[in-house]
User: What shape does this take?
Amino acid sequence: MLKWAGIFLVVSIVAGLLGFKLVAGLAASVAKILFVILLVLLIVFIIRGITGYRRITK
Assistant: This one.
């Protein structure tokens, strides 16, 4: 029984490291990159929308 407790301890430590350090950090990095890209696209489309509106109305 002590052997199984040791195995579960090791498995839980590995899962904790993967979940809290590596995978979470990677997901946060991807989210930051996507946020910046989509923010730039939003600004570009807003500027194009304003200039396109002015061309149509003049």
Remarks:
- The chain has one domain: 1-54.
- The mean pLDDT is 81.
- The two ends are 82 Å apart (CA to CA).
- Residues 1 and 47 are 67 Å apart (CA to CA).
